Amino acid sequence: MSELLLAKLVKKEQLKPDIFKFSVKAPSIVKNSKPGNFIEIRVTDQTEPFLRRPISIYNLDRENGILEFIFQVKGKGTQILAKREVGKQVDIIGPIGYGTFQYENYKNIAIIGGGIGVFPLYELAKCAKADNKSVTTYLGFRSKDFVVLEEEFKKVSDNLILTTDDGSYAKKGFAINYLEKDIKAEKIDAIFACGPLPMLKAVQKLAIEKDIPCQISLEEKMACGLGVCLGCAVKTAKSSKENPEYWHVCKAGPVFNAKDVEI
Ligand SMILES: Cc1cc2nc3c(=O)[nH]c(=O)nc-3n(C[C@H](O)[C@H](O)[C@H](O)COP(=O)(O)OP(=O)(O)OC[C@H]3O[C@@H](n4cnc5c(N)ncnc54)[C@H](O)[C@@H]3O)c2cc1C
Ligand code: FES
Fold first, then answer.
1. How many Å lie between the centroid of ligand 2 and the Cα of residue 111?
2. To 10 degrees, what angle do helices 175-185 and 197-210 make?
3. Structural fold of domain 3-96
4. Ligand 1 pocket, residue 78 CB under 6 Å
5. Smallest Cα–Cα separation from 122: which of 108, 139, 107?
6. Among the bound ligands, the one closest to the CA of 53
7. What is the CATH number that goes with domain 108-262?
8. What's the pLDDT band for 50 if we cut at 50, 70, 90?
9. Which of helix, strand or coil describes residue 219?
């Protein structure tokens, strides 16, 4: 059940010149959130920008009722949000999303993310590890300058494989290349992914070919975020010319079984 809250910003960190981590006091939202859920933020009480911005939940500190999210400054909305000072309020609705990561039935799990898509994977890895799952995390970034959260993911993974496309840091190449090698070499019961569309498409193809259960989180463009505007429609795998079928990512997702959606 989502709710609207004016949550106090209790901590603000700048992870990169354009990437900020916010910690807000939101006990009731924290209590109802699951890995994969997101929140919708209204960045101003002025009329412009009017629409809320969807941002993933990065970490849930259940003991202290603190919700953390990390965002990259992209356009007007995130620029305004980045200027918020500690002690001020953030207008959020959450948790949002019916489709969350379901890891409970698997023992050996692979988590793969790229770029700013790694943020929602942290809470998943943390919960799965606490639940005694074997967690191997594959994180891909464009180059050394884009690498974030290495130490944080190390703590919540049994094994962290970090890659940069150009080899300027850690292993060279795409994270999926290392996942593919590990699938051949050992047992992976399920894959969980979030990241840029080309990466998600490649993960989806690999998982279907190898017949491994796979859940992907889609970060479609959104407008209303409430399932009423069709702004975030994704085709279902069953959809055809004669019988087109869509799901709203903001309502049915953002996490879907990879074999159920056409991306
Ligand atoms: C489920 C979900 C989770 C997300 N989680 C994160 C996250 O954890 N961290 C992060 O940095 N970014 C995340 N994004 C992307 C983030 O929502 C956009 O970068 C942000 O909305 C851009 O807003 P803006 O006003 O700065 O940019 P503008 O380009 O000015 O935004 C204009 C409009 O387009 C929408 N929009 C623009 N880009 C995106 C996008 N990529 N996805 C969805 N809507 C977009 C905005 O919501 C707004 O309605 C997520 C997106 C979705 C759908
Ligand atoms: S963003 Fe409006 S229906 Fe999903």
1. 27
2. 10
3. Elongation Factor Tu (Ef-tu); domain 3 (2.40.30)
4. yes
5. 139
6. 1
7. 3.40.50.80
8. confident
9. coil
Give the distance, in angstroms, between the CA of residue 258 and the centroid of all CA atoms in the same chain.
Answer: 15
Closest to 253 measured CA to CA, from 222, 217, 210:
217
Please state the atom number of ligand 1 nearest to the C-alpha of residue 79: 26
Give the atom of ligand 2 at the shortest distance from the alpha carbon of 223: 1
Tokens of 56: 């993933």
- Smallest-distance ligand from the CA of 250: 2
Percent of the chain residues past pLDDT 70, beyond the cut:
100
Domain regions of the chain by residue span: 3-96, 108-262
The reported pLDDT for the residue numbered 248 is 92
State pLDDT tens for residues 161-192: 999 999 999 999 999 999 999 998 878 999 99
Q: The tokens of 109 are what? A: 């799990």
Which of 40, 219, 247, 248 is the best mutation target for the ligand 2 pocket, counting ligand atoms within 8 Å of the beta carbon and taking the most? Answer: 248
Using CA atoms, how far residue 155 sits from 34, 127, 152, 206, in Å, is: 20, 12, 5, 27
Helix (H, G, I), strand (E, B), or coil: what is residue 177? Answer: helix
Dig out the tokens for 35 from the structure: 């890995």
Reported pTM: 0.95
DSSP state of 223: S
